[in-house]
Design goal:
Elements: E1 3-8, E2 13-20, E3 25-28, E4 38-39, E5 42-44, E6 50-52, H1 54-61, E7 67-68, E8 82-84, E9 87-89, H2 91-110, E10 114-121, H3 127-139, E11 144-149, H4 150-161, E12 168-174, E13 179-187, E14 191-200, H5 205-224, H6 232-251, E15 254-261, E16 265-272, H7 273-297, E17 307-311, H8 318-328, H9 341-349, E18 358-360, H10 403-409, E19 411-415, E20 420-425, E21 432-438, E22 443-444, E23 446-448, E24 452-456, E25 464-470, E26 479-486, E27 499-506, E28 512-518, E29 527-530, E30 555-562, H11 570-584, E31 593-600, E32 604-611, H12 614-622, H13 638-645, E33 651-658, H14 665-677, E34 680-686, H15 692-698, E35 705-707, H16 713-723, H17 727-732, E36 743-745
Parallel strand pairs: 1-10, 10-11, 12-17, 14-19, 18-23, 30-31, 30-33, 33-34, 34-35
Antiparallel strand pairs: 1-2, 2-3, 2-4, 5-6, 5-7, 8-9, 12-13, 13-14, 15-16, 19-22, 20-21, 20-25, 23-27, 24-27, 24-36, 25-26, 26-29, 27-28, 31-32
Bound molecules: adenosine-5'-diphosphate (ADP) and magnesium ion.
Magnesium ion binds at residues 10, 150, 175, 312.
C-alpha cells in the first residue's frame, strides 16, 4: 500500500506532507535536497531537460532564459503561458510538471508510491481554476481525492493541535498576490466548519513591494534629481530589489539599498521600518476592513474570535501582527509555520471522510409553483465514506489527546466563496440580469433544490442555453464560467409556458455542476458544454423591446368529430358549434396556425385539410352532417390525423370528439399510439355514453382525456384552445418570447 499526501501547490513555493504514524501528526516530506518547501519555478534547458525548484529559481533570478514562475496566477486560462524549444505550455501544463516533480521527489524520499492526494487551492479560486488544478494533477499521474481551500487546510492543521470546542479561528492568509480571510468554527462532534470566506484578489505581497519601489524612487529623485518617470530603467532596477528590501525589514529596523542606476552608477540608501509601515498603512488597513466586514456579515465582533491564524508568506511582515493586535485585541498565532501549515492540513484531510450534499431552496427563483412537485436530483455521490476509519492506529493512546486522533476524528465543512447564478431576463423583459441560484457562503457540497424558469425562445426550439455565472454582479462583471446547452425540450400542453428547472451544485471540490429538467419530469435533460462566445456584450445592453414581442411556434390542429347515428340532433349541432368556437380562439395567435377537420363514423373523411384560412375552416366544419360517412362506428380518424400532421413543423395536436363506443377500439388505440410516437398530442373528448378508459387510451396523457357533459362542449374546447396558446393566452404570447438566443425569464426580479 502506498501513501496519502497533502500538497500545497503554491504560487511561489509548494510543499508536500503526510501523516506520520509515530509522531501522531502530519509532517512535511522534504524534497531530495532536504528542502521542506520547493520553489514553484521551472526551467526548460536547451537540451530539453526540465529543472524544477531551487535551481530553477536561481536561474530565474539570474535572468536565465527558459524559466517559468508564478504560473498559478494564470490557472484556468487556455492561453499559452510560455513556450520553449518550440513547445507551448499553459499554466495547467506547468502545474502538471511541478506536481509530477513533487510526486517523484516524494516517492524517492519515502520509497513509497502516492496512492491518493489532496491538493489545495486559494478559497477564491473559481470553477475554471479548480478544474485546471484537477486536470494538472491528473496529467501528473496523481489520484486526487479532493481539492480543498488553503485557509481551510491551515485551519485543519491548527485544529488538530489546538482543539477547543466552539473556538472560532480567523484564518488570515496574505500571500504574494492575494488576500483571503476565513472564519472557521470548531463545533461539537469534532466538526470544523468554515462559516464565511472573503478576500481581495488584487492585494498581496507584491503591493508592498511596489510601495518599497515608490519609497526608494522618491529618495533617488530627491538626492540625484533622476526621476523614474523620465527614466523607466530606474523603476525597473528598483523593482527588482524591492522584495528583498521588504524581507530585510522583517528582521531588521532598517534595510540597506544598493542599486546600479543607469547614467549614474551605484546609489545606496536606507529604508526604515517606520517609513515602510507608514507608506503601507492603507494596504494593511484594507485587510482589516475585509476582516471586519466578514465579522459583521456573521453578526459577531473581534471579541467572539478565539484566535487569529496567520497564513501566507506576507504575514511575516511585522506590521501584520502589530496591526491585527491593535484592531482585534488578540495576538495572532505565529507558532504555525506559514509556509507549511497548508500542506500539513491537506495531509490530514486526505484521511477524512467526504461530506454529503446539502440542499438549499431558492424561493426567489421559484415561480410560485408547488415546490413539492420536484423530486430531488440524484447525484453521483463522491466516493464512499468507508475511508473514515483512521488509516493510522495509535498504539496505547487512551484518553490522551494527540494531534493524530484529533485530526482523524475531525470533520470539516467548507463554504463556497462565490455565489452562482444564471443569465436571465428580468420580469419586465428589459435587461439581462444575474439571477443567483446558490448564494455565497453555502456549505459544500451543496445543490439548489429547485429554480424554475420559463423557457423562452424563438421558434420553439428544443434547446436552451445556460450561462453559469460566479459572483453577484451584473452578467458581464461576473466570471462566466460556462455555457451549457440543454436539449431535448418538448412542448406540450401540460407544461405551457414551458418551465425548466435548473439545478446547480457545488461539489466537494468547489466545482460547479448543472442539471436541468422540464416541468414535473424526473428525467434529466441532456446537457452539453460549449465554449463561451467571445462576444458577450449583448448581455450588458438593454434588451430591444421588439425582441421581447410575443411569438409562438407553428401550431397545427386537426379536429375529428364522430358523425355516427347517435350524434344526430343537438349533439352534432353542439359539437360543431364548439369546434367553430375553438377556431375563433386562434384569430390572434402570434405564430403560424393551421387547422383541419375530419368526420368519422363508418369511414374517416378529411372535411378540411390543414388551412390557415380560419373562416374557410369554420365553413367546412359547419358543412359537416350526421351520417355523412355512414351511421355506424366502423372506423377511427387516427390514420388521417397522422397523414395530416406527421410532417408538420412545430406543435401538432389532434382532438377527437366521440359520444359512444367504437367498434374496433384496439385498432383505434394502436393507431393513436403511433400518433403519440410521432409527436402528435392527442386529446380525446367524450360525452354521452363515451368510455372513459378508451378516452384515456387514445389520449397522450390522462389529463388530455376529458369526459364532459354535452352542455360543456364549448367550454372544453375553449379550455384546450387556451392551453395550447389560443384565446387570451395568444394575446399574452405566453408560448414564447422572441430573443435571438433562448433566455430565461426570471421571476420576482426587480
Ligand atoms: P502565495 O501563496 O501567493 O504563493 P506565499 O504565501 O508563498 O504566497 O507568500 C509569498 C509572499 O510572501 C511574497 O509576496 C513574498 O514577498 C512574501 N514574503 C515571503 N517571505 C517574506 C518575509 N520574510 N517578509 C516579508 N514578506 C515575505
Ligand atoms: Mg500560499
Amino acid at each position: 500500500m502506498g501513501i496519502k499526501v497533502g500538497i500545497d501547490l503554491g504560487t511561489t513555493f509548494s510543499a508536500v506532507a503526510m501523516m506520520d504514524e509515530k509522531k501522531g501528526q502530519p509532517v512535511i516530506i522534504p524534497n531530495t535536497l532536504g528542502e521542506r518547501i520547493t520553489p514553484s519555478v521551472i526551467q526548460f534547458t536547451e537540451d530539453d531537460e526540465i529543472i524544477v525548484g531551487t535551481e530553477a529559481k536561481e536561474a530565474f533570478e539570474a535572468g536565465e532564459s527558459g524559466c517559468a514562475s508564478v504560473f498559478k496566477r494564470s490557472m484556468g486560462s487556455q492561453d499559452i503561458y510560455c513556450s520553449f524549444n518550440g513547445k507551448r505550455y499553459t499554466a495547467e501544463d506547468l502545474s502538471a510538471i511541478l506536481l509530477r516533480y513533487l510526486k517523484e521527489e516524494t516517492e524517492k524520499v519515502t520509497h513509497q508510491a502516492i496512492d491518493e492526494a489532496v491538493v489545495t487551492v486559494p478559497a477564491y479560486f473559481y470553477h475554471k481554476e479548480r478544474q485546471a488544478t484537477m486536470n494538472a494533477a491528473k496529467k501528473a499521474g496523481l489520484n486526487i481525492r479532493q481539492i480543498i481551500n488553503e485557509p481551510t487546510a491551515a485551519a485543519m492543521n491548527y485544529g488538530a493541535n489546538h482543539w477547543r470546542e466552539n473556538a472560532r479561528v480567523l484564518v488570515y492568509d496574505l500571500g504574494g498576490g492575494t488576500f483571503d480571510v476565513t472564519l472557521v468554527q470548531m463545533k461539537k462532534g469534532n466538526q470544523m466548519e468554515s462559516l464565511q470566506t472573503t478576500g481581495d484578489h488584487t492585494l498581496g505581497g507584491k503591493d508592498w513591494d511596489a510601495r518599497i519601489s515608490m519609497i526608494v524612487e522618491g529618495k533617488i529623485e530627491e538626492e540625484t534629481g533622476l526621476s523614474s518617470t523620465d527614466y523607466p530603467e530606474i523603476h525597473q532596477v528598483v523593482t527588482q530589489s524591492a522584495e528583498s528590501i521588504k524581507k530585510q525589514l522583517t528582521t531588521r529596523n532598517t534595510a540597506s539599498v544598493k542599486v546600479n542606476l543607469p547614467n549614474y552608477g551605484w546609489y545606496s540608501t536606507v529604508v526604515s521600518l517606520d517609513e515602510f509601515e507608514q507608506n503601507t498603512n492603507d494596504l494593511i488597513e484594507r485587510t482589516g476592513t475585509l476582516c471586519e466586514s466578514l465579522l459583521r456579515g456573521l453578526n459577531i465582533t473581534w471579541r467572539d474570535v478565539t484566535d487569529i491564524l496567520l497564513v501566507g508568506g506576507s504575514t511575516r511582515m511585522r506590521q501584520v501582527t502589530t496591526y491585527l493586535k491593535r484592531i482585534s485585541g488578540h495576538a495572532p498565532l505565529s507558532q504555525v509555520n506559514p509556509d507549511e501549515a497548508v500542506a500539513l492540513g491537506a495531509a490530514i484531510q486526505v484521511h477524512l471522510p467526504l461530506p454529503e450534499y446539502s440542499v438549499i431552496t431558492m424561493a426567489s427563483a421559484n415561480d410560485g409553483k408547488p415546490s413539492n412537485a420536484f423530486s430531488p436530483f440524484k447525484f453521483k455521490k463522491a466516493t464512499a465514506t468507508s475511508q473514515a476509519t483512521p488509516v493510522y492506529s495509535l498504539p496505547g493512546v487512551v484518553g490522551k489527546e494527540t494531534a493524530l486522533n484529533n485530526a482523524l476524528c475531525m470533520n470539516h465543512v467548507d463554504v463556497v466563496a462565490h455565489a452562482m447564478g444564471i443569465i436571465a431576463v428580468n420580469a419586465e423583459g428589459t435587461r439581462y440580469i444575474n439571477k443567483t441560484i446558490i448564494p455565497a457562503n453555502q456549505k459544500i457540497p451543496v445543490k439548489c433544490a429547485e429554480a424554475f424558469y420559463y423557457y423562452t425562445s424563438a421558434r420553439g426550439d428544443n434547446e436552451v442555453e445556460i450561462y453559469v455565472l460566479q459572483g453577484t454582479k451584473t452578467p458581464l462583471e461576473c466570471q462566466i464560467i460556462g455555457k451549457y446547452v440543454v436539449s431535448g425540450i418538448t412542448h406540450n400542453r401540460e407544461d405551457n409556458p414551458t418551465t425548466i428547472k435548473i439545478q446547480y451544485s457545488y461539489d466537494i471540490n468547489g466545482m460547479v455542476h448543472v442539471q436541468a429538467r422540464q416541468g414535473n419530469s424526473t428525467l434529466d435533460l441532456p446537457i452539453r458544454e460549449e465554449p463561451v462566445p467571445a462576444d458577450m456584450s449583448k448581455y450588458g445592453q438593454p434588451i430591444n423591446p421588439e425582441d421581447m414581442k410575443p411569438v409562438a411556434e407553428p401550431l397545427s390542429v386537426v379536429m375529428a368529430v364522430d358523425v355516427s347515428g347517435s350524434m344526430s340532433g343537438d349533439p352534432i349541432k353542439d359539437a360543431l358549434d364548439a369546434m367553430c368556437h375553438f377556431v375563433d380562439n386562434f384569430e390572434d395567435y402570434p405564430g403560424d396556425i393551421q387547422i383541419g377537420a375530419i368526420a368519422v363514423s363508418d369511414t374517416s373523411k378529411i372535411v378540411q385539410s390543414l388551412t390557415g384560412n380560419l373562416s374557410k375552416c369554420k365553413s367546412s366544419i359547419k358543412s359537416i352532417t350526421c351520417g355523412m360517412t355512414g351511421y355506424g362506428n366502423g372506423d377511427h380518424p387516427f390514420n388521417d390525423i397522422k397523414s395530416m400532421l406527421s410532417s408538420e413543423k412545430g406543435r401538432k395536436i389532434g382532438i377527437v370528439l366521440a359520444d359512444g363506443m367504437w367498434s374496433y377500439q384496439d385498432q383505434a388505440v394502436a393507431a393513436a399510439h403511433l400518433c403519440h410516437r410521432l409527436g402528435i398530442d392527442i386529446t380525446g373528448i367524450g360525452f354521452g355514453s363515451a368510455d372513459q378508459n378508451f378516452l384515456k387510451d387514445i389520449s397522450s396523457g390522462d389529463v388530455q382525456a376529458m369526459l364532459v357533459d354535452q352542455s360543456e362542449l364549448t367550454q372544453s374546447f375553449g379550455k384546450i384552445a387556451q392551453e395550447i396558446g389560443g384565446g387570451s393566452n395568444a394575446k399574452k404570447g405566453r408560448t414564447g418570447r422572441q430573443t435571438s438566443v433562448a433566455t430565461w425569464l426570471a421571476i420576482n426580479e426587480g
